[in-house]
Fold these 2 entries.
Entry 1:
Amino acid sequence: MSATLLRTSTTARSALRAGASRRAAAMASMSFVRGKATLPDLPYDYGALEPSISGKIMELHHKNHHQTYVNSFNAASEQLAAAEQKQDIQAQIALQPLINFHGGGHVNHTLFWENLAPSKNGGGGEPTGKVKTAIETSYGDFASFKTKFNTALAGIQGSGWAWLVKDNETGQVQIRTYANQDPVVGKYTPLLGIDAWEHAYYLQYQNRKAEYFSAIWDVINWKAVEQRLK
Amino acid sequence: MATKYTLPPLPYGYDALEPVISAQIMTIHHTKHHQTYINTLNNALASQAVATDKNDIVSQIHLQNTINFSAGGHINHTLFWENLVPASSPSAQTHVASKLMAAISARWGSLEKFQEKFNAVLLGLKGSGWGWLVQDTESGNLEIVTTKDQDIVPAGKKPLLGIDMWEHAYYLQYLNDKGSYAKKIWNVINWKKVEERFVGGSDSVFGTLAGLRSNM
């Protein structure tokens, strides 16, 4: 599975390797053509998450924002490959912020689309099974978890994401926020991500971001979250 | 009880910067976003006063993050409103800033080259933040710098011109086309104000905000 996530060149492999195998199942839809990252299809229509997220937001967010991360990641990857070829270590280091930002943008949005679902397809409600148990172990009950998650989202200073992650050392789940497009890598596995960039909600909610954070729970794909926890 | 900060009135109407920045953006940006930074700042300063009275240094440290963010939001937006002006105003003409224009040409070759450079820097921001033309207070040199989120320009740099690159500053009008926003905003720069900042001291730039800045 991890082979489908990674480009054949060692270049991009090193860039995306961290945590990739753990996330392989979670990101099955992230596909690469001729060694390039490509925009994954949304698993539902642009208007399918209304009224939580408007069709216009979804279309711009997917077709423009996510596509730009994909394009910029590919461009940075090519530059990185060229720098490796030339054994130009300074250039390789200088490219890391771009790889992190645009690669993170691609990874984060791909996970985000997958962990959302229209309510008619089972989105919303409360988690069951392993996810429910894990959340209750860490947060007592689902309502308290949701309150804590929304507080974390509201506390982000600038652009960023809030995630429910699994600590790979302890196996426990926890809420963590990440700045800008920093991806969930290293000792954590991403389970559920909510985009708190203004472009994720502004056309519909403007500065009333708390309303967006409240409405998005109606379209959470808990089945996808459960698959990532396995 | 610490000073309560209040929202400064805009020096022009909400629609005065159209078509560069829409009245809807200006209204929400000023009455909602800027107001929220002020409210949060006042609350944080009140909590800090309580923590200081109680010699609770841990709480004081924990509050620094919120104070930095909300005070920065207040300072940055105040400077931003001041360095914008309707395109029809004489202050939007570059010739009212002759000393600054000479310094920009000496540093970047021409105003156009400076603007190109500035826009490239704006578009390179990764996430929310600001682009600034600053003057180093020791060397007097002009520089283009960015600050992330609501960080203010660092000590030792005097802000002359700030451009808000948070998505809320342009999204309702420009959507993901931030390049167009960055280009068009040059039509509504208050060069008279930027010149004043250039020839004045740091205190004159920050005005009544100076006391706030030294608390950060």
Entry 2:
Amino acid sequence: MFRIDQYAYTSRLRHVHPGEKFAFAILTMFICLAASTVLVPLLVTCLAAAAVIMVARVPARFYFRLLFLPLGFLVAGLLAVTLTISRGANPAVYGLVIGGVTLGVTGPALNQAALIFTKSLGAVSCLYFLSLTTPMVEIISILHRLRVPALLVEMMGLIYRFIFVIMETAGMMYVSQGSRCGYAGIRTSFRSMAQLVANLFARSYHRSRALYTALLARGYTGEIRMWEEPRPVSAKHLVLIALVDLTLLVLVLVTWRWPV
Amino acid sequence: MKRRTCTLIFALLLLLCFPQQNAWAMHIMEGFLPLKWSLFWYALTLPFFIAGLLSIQKAVKVDPGVKMLLGLAGAFAFVLSALKLPSVTGSCSHPTGVGLGAILFGPWVMCVLGFIVLLFQAVLLAHGGLTTLGANTFSMAVVGPLAAYAIYRLGERLSLPRWLSVFLAAFLGDLLTYVTTSVQLALAFPAPDGGVMAAMVKFMGIFAITQVPLAVSEGILTIIVFNFLLAHNRQELEQLRVLSRGV
């Protein structure tokens, strides 16, 4: 149902200990965000792309399509960061003058935009590395081991499982409404969509009651325990992660005072 | 010079069309905020989050079935945000479910559910991000639901017609979410001349194109949903104690 989830279950890195992948993704992401020049973020972007495409064997086309996904926000956000609006003519601003107001961009603002762009790209690549190699269930089990409150972890597990059930129900409702011309015009669209949401709510409510009853009948005492596949921690991977992240950290410090 | 100006105008117009294609444009993307602001918003969200967890814990103690209910409510919220909303402007967008969720489940529960839903959206759908999760939770799961709930209760107290208070709750909940996001972006990237205020005007101006029609659509949709629920699912609503003043 979700392509990312599907690749997480079929990637070549599926059987690597989830803690290693989690640590690598989060550490690298923070190093990338700490960078003050574009070099390290670009390196991180390439590194994550190589790991996802060449090691985890996720199709390159899918990966690059995924990278384009946040472009809408990125473009709009960067536009707001770089756009300078000032009264009167400003020699530092490159742009156009409309009725005495200068609308344009400045050199430093462009530099800042380039830095934000590469940093976002690097951080997003780390996120994709994690989500394309580690199934949600394993991420939840790491959170459990990191002593995240049990209630929260349990709710995450429940929500993850129900998303698929409810998504399917909603999809079936949508198809059957559509086949009865439920989305023919704007008025009927609103009506159909509202009906779908209200119905979905009622269905979810009753399903949760039924689930609780079923669990009680099987001796539920307030805790659902899941079996976790044992995954060995590999020393080789740990050394590799430490080496890569240390190198990146040193590069961040070396390039600290570079202009871009 | 003339050609340059034309190109610039064309580029601007093109860029303005962009956010409409991306329906989840208001999730701050991964890595967009500087490190210190990411941490700041995480810290600011934390007390609300703990309050939410404690209130859930209390409810679970009284009735363990609440946990299942909230699990399904969270999945419901996730699926809701994946539906395509018919929009008043013709472009398609997605409901946030902030207003409906806050009225149905209360603002404290929504804070925890919203956090989980946003985390899943980041990992499963690549919308939003882990470093910006704090900021996104604050705007979409703290400010939005709290405002929507407060407005709904205020409407009840003033005995406004129910459709009006539902509409205002959903509409203003969405708008305040978007204003909060603009403030977050403006604080992180103040304009060189004019500072935070000027930056905020810029961000709000750019995101208004998608967000204002979305808020109107969501307001209308929430009214119709609520009418359906009142007509057919009164019993469930009463169990959730939505109809606090028995109608």
